[in-house]
Amino acid sequence: MPQPNDRKRTVAVVGATGAVGEVVLRLLAERDFPVGELRPLASQRSAGTTVSFAGRDVPVAEATPDAFEGVDFAFFAATGSLSKTLAPEVAKRGGVAIDKSSTWRLDDQVPLVVPEINPDDLEKHRGIVSCPNCTTIGFVMALEPIRRAAGVRSVVVTTLQAVSGSGKPGLEELARQKQELARGDAPTTDFYPEPIADNALPLCESFLESGYSTEEVKLLHETRKIMPLPDVDVSMTCVRVPVPVGHSATMLVETERPLSPEDARAALAAFPGVEVMDDPQANVFPTARHVEGRDEVLVGRVRRDLGSDRLWLWQVSDNLRKGAATNAIQIAEEMIRRGLK
Ligand SMILES: NC(=O)c1ccc[n+]([C@@H]2O[C@H](COP(=O)([O-])OP(=O)(O)OC[C@H]3O[C@@H](n4cnc5c(N)ncnc54)[C@H](OP(=O)(O)O)[C@@H]3O)[C@@H](O)[C@H]2O)c1
Asked: Rounded CA gap, 180 and 165, in Å?
């Protein structure tokens, strides 16, 4: 007999023409999400164009409050200001907005969820659920197994972030600058303040008066909200690198109790959604190229710090999949499983 859980859902994808939106559409089909009606939404610029979903072309409409009438899940992958105005319109109409922007992440009324880590927080939802930043997701996925094994006191992290983390404008800027360099021309800058091709920029998003970037501050506050570690110290530098897809990070972790690299590897390997790829003698370590198109967070280079008891990790994840679309769809799947929608 069909269960209420089996019914098809009406699903909106806001930002369906963007880098994350395209992956959300692909994964909804790939994961066999129970989509009844699909409503791809974007700006007025894209209204009337089509996007591909499960082998067919579906027309894109403009994202307006009325577009959410009867919607069960609305995946937001557009702009923060759009999420601010439209996510409450979804909730008001009885649907659930799952937001990829930073707008709602630190709101006390809004759960910030990585399903492998804090799925119970979904029970408190009031129609809006927030997805962490793409950098935070890979980071906490690698940190949580260590926390469960030995507690975590502090982490020093440096990220190496792909240009697709800035959406299509980042991808387009890298592609154009590579062509310019190949022609022997100087790279022109349109989106990033310095050339990203053949370069590395210690800036992700924009700088605050404190000298930290907005991306760096998110990593600290989101980690504290997701993990039961409200006081954990996270010291970070976020760097944009000329990689199309896949965020990497080095992490130096201070644990509460001693943890050997072998036990850390075992804890990481046993955690759902994490895969260990770590055999230095055979030159085996994860890279952005290994992770593109995969949902797992890959971890390697697990080793004891030479000057302390701390542990080094190298972690890589696909920012468009687990860092964005996969995590959002997992949230919806978990809500269905729990009968929350
Ligand atoms: N890229 C990542 O790795 C990543 C990871 C985690 C979270 N995020 C977040 O996900 C969101 C989308 O990022 P993205 O990388 O996919 O960006 P993107 O490639 O630039 O795409 C932006 C999307 O938003 C739509 N949009 C822009 N202004 C709009 C408006 N006024 N009304 C309706 N739709 C509008 C665009 O539609 P048009 O085509 O009509 O302009 C497009 O579909 C952002 O909040 C970003 O912070 C991104």
From this structure: 22
